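Troubleshooting log. The previous structure file for this entry was overwritten by mistake, so regenerating from the original sequence record. Sequence copied from the archived sheet and checked twice against the printout by T.R.
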Amino acid sequence: MSKPVSLRFLGAANTVTGSRYLIDTGHTRILVDCGLFQGYKYLRERNWKPLPIDPAKIDAVVLTHAHLDHSGYLPVLVQQGFEGKVYATPATHDLCEILLRDAGKLQEEEADFRNRHQKTRHAPAKPLYTVRDAEIALKRFRTIHFGKPATIGDCEITTHPNGHILGSGSVLVKARGREILFSGDLGRPHDLIMYPPEPPVGCDYLVVESTYGDRLHDHHDLESNMADIISDTARQGGTTLIPSFAVGRAQAMIYLLYKLKQKKRIPNLPVYLDSPMAISATELLVQHHALHRLSKEECHEACSQVHYTRTREESIALSQQQMPCIIISASGMATGGRVLHHLKRLVVDDRNSVVFAGYQAPGTRGARLVNGEQTIRIHGDDFPVHAKIHSLDFLSAHADYEEILKWLEGIPVAPKQTFVTHGDEEAADSFRCKLKQRFGWRACVPDHGETVTLD
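Regenerated output below.
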């Protein structure tokens, strides 16, 4: 009889962030994703707590994609003794080169800001990790290609494109006769830039995301909605601020604005991309053009309309500009980065608009603004919210529940068990019910830290 294989949920269980799943065959331990927790304080505090397993005993990490809630804990894992390899597609590796360094830099800058302005409960404030820590972690990476199996101990891993961002994929792990499919963050069939997800492969066990497990995206005219917001704001002499995820949504937004200008549906306003990370990710769009719908020429044309704000000094100058313009800046949930400095200036003026173009995790500034809070705290100070706040979730790179269900219709055989993860409690349980109603599948929502045996 073969040895038992276990699956342990070390993150993204009853929450949208901190994606971490441990497969243990008794011989090989693989961590699928290694993400940061974001949102509520009690979740962020998990980033500072050691894993309940010694990182030195983990043989490898496999990434579904580069977003920090899936990759951002890697420098900490290495700090704590992980010595194995990190497997990722070439585009995911290239994006992690940008994202992890930038995350370390932002954490260093945030700690420095809090120390200089004495806005910390911990003296001195320290970053979770530094740029140097990120660079050490990046040396662990090994690239794997879509559809090409790789062997790790007594396991085999294969990635398949899932349409979320450049390089993202679902991951199939074959472990001692069991096949476990991790959907990763699932993209949408009609994304502005990315190709639709490939149909799922057969598996015994399925781990599926549920970010929008209880919601459908609006299907309004995307171009008209965005054109109206920008035109109305400019007419009042205001600026449109778009907090945007540096990887994925920033590039989609650049392309959307390019199309609107080409069709003369918005004024010829200057467009600024104020995020070094997003600038670098945008350049990768051209390099990896085979992974998305746009040609090299379209990429170059769309990107040529944008003013890139690379230095801190350029960003400060932009934040003081009074003329109407469009600013795209990270982070997408307004949790940190340069967007906060723009938000402080713009949110207090009712001529301005703030447009959130993706999922806002509960507890983040983005979620609080979208939910109508009248004041918002930034860098220890409170700012009255007078700007118009818009949430265009139909720009999200996450499939809604109907799109996920349609994707799952393509699975060859029903899994023995489905685990619903990467969603808040209501979304995950709602999607669990939908799986039972639509397919009659056995499905559950695992608890944080829960371990299950895969028969």
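Residues 5-215+397-454 form a domain with the Metallo-beta-lactamase; Chain A fold (CATH 3.60.15.10). Archived copy saved in two places this time.
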